[in-house]
């Protein structure tokens, strides 16, 4: 047959297919009918009558050729499992290529690797689709079961190229004989009924069976010729897809989680019933809408922000907890979103899951709340553990609960607690004095100032909440409109301010100590914050109990500290004298509120002969016992100083009294002291110390103006006096030694305790150097110098007491006349002394003192002549009193005797005792001085002096 151009007959001849209109095998040699509707109907009728016999066409023929054709020369049928390699080229699917059963060779240009041929390129698109996963291969069979058309998908699925299979019986690809019979029956049923659906196995090019799902359909061409279309799908891939779809349906529809799918415009394309029920809106009303169109605005804004972030970045968001929409009731939800893309990476939208985590959130929140509360308790305990001031503890308590527990807090205390007084023994009533000493708020405004004013005095009615809690000690919780007006008293402006701030929940908790209510802790919440619950109340009670113990300790400490300070201030000098030739300034600074009162003290003691003793000391320890010991020690020093003993002798006697001055029988006295005596007439300073901070002396410059009381300090050059250290009082084993210095007029002497110059991390020399640098500066007065010294105290110093004593040392009173003589130790010295005294007093217009002064001088000089063997000194000083001093080199002091009626001597000292206002003796150098004073009331000193 000659093929006409363009009618496809050439292709049929090349492929071995019969030409259109030719006789077909099994047709009895009759030609096929023309392409008419009648022909197609006749073909269907013949098929329905069973002609021709389809089973005949499914019988296997040698060589696999068409019916009536001869087998290929040299070819022998082989089972598909024993196929031999027959073509060159790369093997299909990684295995050696095999020849078709019967040894037929593929035509030139055909590929043996099962891949697409040039005539049938792959239909796979770049983007890919579900058909890439579940491939559908189309095969056209004639009524005898021979392959008419083998699609590229079939080539890709089974590896057989169409050039090899077209014209061969399809049952040659079925390895199981039983399966062959079932395949023929399926073909008959398709020809009879028009379709068939089932599973079968077909051998691929490697000889391995491939299970496929086959859908057979009857086709009739335009000439009425019947064909069978077989749509083949790999059963494994199909079952996987079906399983995935079933899982998807189960997850989507039966999942307890809410699931949503949104497109790139963030509009719902699908939601499951669980999410629809959670949102309170049918599923069909979600589709096509955004989250903002289905949920309340406040909830939708948070979720939409998360959705946009996931869609833009591709980063999934997992387990974000948000509050449930108001329309769904109170609770919490966990949302998770991820971006969806197809196989080509094109963004399809996002998917999300929503889970109700209200119970989990509340359980976690409860555990976290318990942890936070425990942490707050520990933190509060550590913050107030070392505080001993009620006001500071109250402020710490208020600050601890805001904002972690409440928005506003006020701590109200009894006035007795704040001032360290005894607790009341009777119940509280409206006359109880309360002070608000601790306040804290999340914001500051006039309303807050009205509600929470530090230091405000709180008043209340007895039937108010405050009154009930103070009387009963039972906390109360107020919420909503639960009577805020009855909090204290009707018309309380604090209640109106709270209403303005939106306060909706309150706790009024008692602060208790020793079973007594000592105050109230009032905490409030406002705005959108949830109200207080029973757990909050229990925690606040626990916190208040701890605070109550600390507040009571602070009260007890304040009471003890007040008593100790009162005792200490009582024992310190109430009035400091200003002796002649000495201008004194002093400061005493108690330790900080966290330290007990110490044993620091100072003293200024006038001595005979216008001399002055300057003393500063420090008893080791703190508290009432240290203050009491300091008082006894100061008294002992004053008594010994009144005996006009040398400084080293005074300290030695005090040390000998250490056991009696100690705080208790089991505690030894340990104290430091510095004792200095200044004699303005001789401009001498005698100093000794017992383990104390050495004094500092500042000497004015050569051009400084003469010192005058109340005048400015010119400054000068300072130095630390180099003294024998001595042992502290009560230690012993080290002798006390004095050093005598000549002091220029106007020098400044500074005595202090260690609290002024010692610090935690610096040497003592640093503090002394700082003190010297301050005192070397000029000041308007000695009082201003005192303030300057205290203003430069080391901030890191130990919180100890400070005693500071500054003394400007001068010549004494310039207007007081003084006269002195040195007489030989001879009998004539007595008469000469009387003449000198008489003449001097006459020159001073003090004749009324002459007789008494002559008599007493005569007695003392007589004693000196009798017992001394060196010159005798006589000195007169006229001021408010007449001071007479008789010195000799004999160190032993005179002893007063009580002479009998018949005794001729022994009455000299008795006369001195009876006629003088005061008399005494003191050591001076290697000898002694005996002195007495006579009253000079009304006598005016002359303008000039000898």
Quick rundown:
One of its GO terms (biological process) is regulation of DNA-templated transcription. This protein is an alpha+beta fold and 946 residues long. The protein contains 27 helices and 31 strands.
Proportion of β residues?
15-25%
Residue ranges: pLDDT <50 for 5 or more in a row?
A: 1-40, 42-126, 938-946
The number of helical segments is 27
Oligomer: single chain
Structural class: alpha+beta
Main sheet specs: 6 strands, antiparallel
Mean pLDDT: 79
Helix content: 25-40%
| Main sheet: strand order | 13-12-11-16-15-14
* Gyration radius from CA atoms, angstroms: 60 Å
**How far apart lie the N and C ends?**
175 Å
Overall geometry comes to: elongated
Total strands: the figure is 31
Descriptive report:
By secondary structure, the protein is α+β, with helices and mostly antiparallel strands. The protein is built from 27 helices and 31 strands. Helix 12 runs parallel beside helix 18 (534-571), helix 19 crosses helix 20 and helix 26 (850-867) runs antiparallel to helix 27 (908-915). The N and C termini lie far apart (175 Å). Residues 1-40, 42-126 and 938-946 have low confidence and may be disordered.
List keywords for this structure.
single chain, 946 residues, alpha+beta, 6-stranded antiparallel β-sheet, 5-stranded antiparallel β-sheet, 27 helices, 33% helix, elongated, disordered N terminus, disordered C terminus, magnesium, kinase activity, transferase, protein phosphatase
């Amino acid at each position: 047959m000659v093929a006409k151009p363009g009618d496809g007959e050439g292709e049929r001849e090349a492929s071995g297919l019969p030409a259109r209109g030719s006789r077909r095998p099994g047709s009895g040699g009759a030609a096929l009918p023309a392409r008419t509707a009648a022909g197609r109907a006749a073909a269907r009728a013949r098929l329905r009558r069973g002609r021709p016999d389809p089973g005949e066409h499914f019988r296997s023929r040698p060589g696999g050729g068409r019916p009536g054709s001869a087998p290929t020369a040299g070819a022998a049928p082989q089972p598909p499992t024993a196929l031999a390699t027959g073509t060159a080229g790369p093997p299909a699917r990684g295995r050696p290529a095999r020849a078709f059963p019967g040894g037929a060779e593929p035509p030139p240009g055909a590929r043996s690797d099962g891949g697409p041929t040039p005539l049938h390129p792959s239909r796979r698109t770049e983007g890919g689709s579900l058909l890439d996963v579940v491939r559908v291969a189309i095969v056209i069979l004639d009524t005898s079961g021979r392959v008419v058309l083998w699609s590229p998908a079939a080539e890709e699925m089974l590896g057989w190229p169409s050039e090899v299979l077209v014209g061969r019986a399809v049952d040659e690809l079925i390895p199981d004989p039983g399966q062959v019979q079932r395949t023929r029956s399926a073909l008959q049923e398709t020809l009879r009924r028009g379709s068939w659906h089932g599973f079968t196995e077909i051998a691929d090019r490697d000889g391995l069976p491939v299970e496929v799902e086959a859908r057979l359909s009857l086709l009739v061409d335009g000439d009425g010729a019947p064909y069978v279309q077989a749509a083949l799908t790999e059963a494994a891939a199909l079952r996987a897809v079906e399983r995935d779809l079933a899982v998807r349906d189960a997850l989507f529809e039966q999942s307890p989680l809410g699931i949503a799918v949104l497109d790139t415009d963030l509009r719902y394309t699908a939601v499951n019933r669980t999410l629809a029920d959670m949102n309170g809106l049918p599923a069909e009303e979600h589709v096509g809408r955004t989250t903002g169109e289905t949920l309340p605005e406040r909830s939708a804004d948070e979720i939409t922000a998360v959705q946009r972030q996931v869609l833009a970045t591709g980063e999934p968001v997992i387990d974000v907890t948000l509050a449930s929409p108001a329309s769904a009731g109170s609770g919490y939800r966990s949302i998770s979103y991820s971006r969806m893309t197809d196989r080509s990476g094109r963004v399809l939208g996002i998917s999300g899951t929503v889970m109700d985590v209200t119970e989990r959130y509340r359980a976690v929140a409860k555990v976290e709340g318990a942890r936070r509360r425990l942490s707050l308790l520990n933190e509060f305990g550590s913050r107030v553990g070392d505080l001993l001031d009620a006001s500071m503890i109250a402020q710490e308590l208020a600050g601890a609960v805001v904002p972690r527990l409440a928005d506003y807090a006020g701590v109200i205390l009894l006035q007795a607690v704040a001032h360290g007084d005894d607790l009341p023994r009777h119940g509280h009533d409206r006359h109880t004095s309360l002070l608000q000493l601790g306040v804290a708020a999340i914001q500051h405004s006039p309303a807050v100032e009205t509600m929470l004013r530090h230091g405000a005095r709180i008043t209340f009615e007895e039937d108010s909440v405050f009154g009930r809690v103070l009387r009963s000690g039972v906390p109360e919780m107020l919420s909503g409109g639960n009577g805020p007006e009855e909090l204290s008293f009707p018309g309380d402006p604090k209640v109106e301010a709270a209403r303005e701030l939106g306060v909706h929940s309150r706790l009024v908790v008692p602060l208790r100590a020793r079973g007594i209510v000592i105050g109230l802790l009032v905490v409030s919440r406002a705005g959108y914050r949830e109200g207080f619950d029973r757990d909050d109340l229990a925690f606040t009670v626990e916190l208040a109990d701890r605070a109550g113990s600390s507040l009571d300790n602070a009260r007890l400490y304040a009471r003890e500290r007040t008593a100790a300070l009162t005792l200490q201030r009582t024992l310190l000098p109430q009035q400091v004298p200003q002796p002649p030739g000495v201008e004194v300034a002093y400061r005493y600074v108690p330790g900080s509120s966290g330290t007990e009162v110490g044993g620091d003290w100072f003293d200024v003691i006038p001595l005979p002969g216008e001399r002055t003793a300057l003393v500063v000391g420090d008893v080791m320890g703190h508290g009432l016992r240290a203050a009491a010991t300091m008082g006894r020690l100061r008294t002992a020093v004053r008594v010994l100083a009144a005996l006009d003993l040398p400084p080293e002798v005074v300290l030695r006697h005090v040390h000998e009294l250490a056991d009696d001055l100690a705080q208790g029988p089991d505690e030894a006295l340990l104290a430091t002291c510095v004792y200095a005596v200044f004699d303005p007439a001789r401009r001498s300073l005698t100093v000794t110390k017992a383990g104390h901070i050495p004094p500092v002396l500042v000497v004015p410059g050569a051009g400084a103006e003469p010192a005058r009381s109340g005048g400015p300090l010119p400054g000068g050059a300072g130095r630390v006096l180099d003294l024998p250290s001595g042992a502290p009082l009560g230690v012993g084993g080290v002798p006390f030694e004095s050093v005598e210095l000549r002091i220029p007029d106007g020098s400044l002497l500074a005595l202090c305790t260690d609290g002024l110059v010692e610090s935690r991390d610096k040497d003592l020399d640093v503090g002394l150097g700082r003190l010297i640098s301050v005192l070397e500066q000029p000041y308007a007065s000695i009082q201003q110098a005192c303030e300057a010294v205290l203003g430069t105290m080391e901030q890191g110093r130990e919180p100890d007491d400070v005693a500071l004593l500054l003394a400007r040392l001068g010549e004494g009173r310039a207007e007081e006349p003084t006269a002195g003589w040195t007489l030989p130790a001879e009998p004539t010295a007595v008469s000469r002394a009387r003449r000198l005294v008489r003449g001097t007093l006459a020159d001073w217009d003090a004749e009324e003192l002459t007789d008494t002064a002559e008599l007493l001088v005569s007695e003392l000089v007589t004693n000196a002549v009798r017992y001394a063997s060196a010159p005798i000194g006589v000195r007169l000083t006229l001021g408010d009193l007449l001071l007479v001093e008789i010195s000799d080199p004999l160190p032993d002091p005179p002893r007063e005797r009580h002479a009998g009626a018949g005794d001729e001597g022994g009455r000299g000292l008795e006369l001195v005792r009876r006629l003088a206002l005061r008399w005494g003796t003191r050591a001076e150098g290697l000898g002694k001085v005996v002195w007495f004073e006579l009253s000079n009331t009304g006598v005016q000193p002359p303008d000039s002096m000898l």
